[in-house]
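Attaching the record inline, Q. Sequence:
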Amino acid sequence: MANRQKLPALVGQSGVDGLGNRTATFRIEQALWTGGRIDGEISSAQAGIRRADHVVAAAQNDIMLKVLNAFTELARVQARQQAARSNVDEHLRLAQMIERRVDSNISPASDGVLASARFSQAKAELNQLEALAIRSRSTLGQALGRPVVSIALPEQRNMGQYSLEVLVKTALDYAPSLQQLAAELDAARADVEVKKSVALPQVKLRVDRTVGGAFPNTQAYVALEYQTGAGLSAYAAVREAEARVDAAALQAEAARRDLTDSVSADWADYRSFAVQVRDLEKQVESTTSVFDSFVRQYAVGRKGWTDVLNAQREVAQARYQLADAVWGQFRAAVRLQIVTGMVSPDNMLLVQSRDQTRSLVLAEPVATPPADAVAVTAPAPAPISEPAVVPVLQAPARTGW
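Structure, as predicted:
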């Protein structure tokens, strides 16, 4: 539409001359020089189109991050539930064992009371996690717009192969929000040119044709127009437009800094959680071994009952921490993939729902840097009456889960 301003314009008007004769005047007007107004309006329109496209992409990224947070929170809670169920089962076994010893007058009744208290505490933790899982599943369902049946952990892309500098540069080049601000800055600069052109002379070629009246005629001429606006308002409008350019540039720079900080934080979280996962896997193994050893030593009188219960509590705590670290690492990895454009709405599917099988699949990246993850096609949907976890990509085995 803005390009059409370069075409001639047709203007018509009618009236009555001084002798009472009706007249009509038709004018064809072609702009020869507008001081950059037409080019500025064309640039502003093009920047507006780019901004609209990037607004949609930025909104999609925000939605993906929201879904990711809900997805990982539900997965973290479910992993904790699994550890809590194991804890409840183990405490039930211990409570039954000490009950037999108390009935046989081998152990004091206080040991049975302590075991019962720990068993109740384990059940309370499980109940809290079940309530939290319901809320998390509802949050994820709200984000997806459909009920969630189950979720599965896909294999993670190795984000440790990328340096922070590469990830930051890729994120800055891809970020739809930054592209949106850049388009707004271009539009503001184009608006400055438009405002400046108002304070400059306009050169136009005109052809006027008058019919009717006492003196019908046709004339062609070059017109020079110059308007400053009431009270030289055109110059004030230029200063206002220049101030908007400065504001847009500062906003874009602030957004770049925020994105750089966000990528750096996610990259640091990913590396930190990766170390924690390795250490906590070993901790789960060691605490489980210690617990088994304490149970055997208790049977021969070398360890106390409190030592056994405390060892089991350490096993449960290690499993809880491992669940948090695994899903914390996963969340940081996918956040990095979203902000760098490796994951987009076209290659990200999230969970199995009641009407369609959907699973979190990380396909090959659309933009640099390259990746080595492999996307695996999900199986056919499970029956609605028998919801089951979708085995999309097999996660690495987690010891102690």
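Confidence is low (pLDDT under 50) at residues 350-401. The beta strands are 9-16, 22-33, 148-150, 202-212, 217-225, 352-353.

More tomorrow.
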